[in-house]
């Protein structure tokens, strides 16, 4: 197994967000959310109120949690190192994570999400069964 050097300044959250599959799916979902808000004015006002509420709650939570986070910084750093190593293993086993969603979708063109969810993590297509080993 090849060892991948992990930048100590790079958090596992940043690495996950920067995975091509995750970032392209985020862009896709964000675009759908924004276009839906633009199409439905009443829904837009409800969504904007919810967004303001989430921002306020997040701000208060971060302010309250900051002293605890600072106190636990060494433990968080160790957990981040192990999480990054785990992410390395997942990336090795699932190269699809390094492809944008448009490319990943071509790997499973006949994917039926309901069937996938009902079959405990096995992706079923009309031609093959692919089991994910994590």
From TrEMBL:
Q: What is its main location?
A: other
Which locations, inside or outside the cell, does it occupy? Lipid droplet
Q: Name one GO cellular component term.
A: cytosol
Can you cite a GO biological process for this protein?
Answer: lipid storage
Q: Name one Pfam family in it.
A: Perilipin
Which keywords describe this protein according to UniProt?
Lipid droplet
The Swiss-Prot or TrEMBL record describes its family as follows: Belongs to the perilipin family.
Q: Which PANTHER family match?
A: PERILIPIN, PERILIPIN-2
Q: What is this protein called?
A: Perilipin 2
Q: Which organism is it from?
A: Rhinopithecus bieti
Q: Which gene encodes it?
A: PLIN2
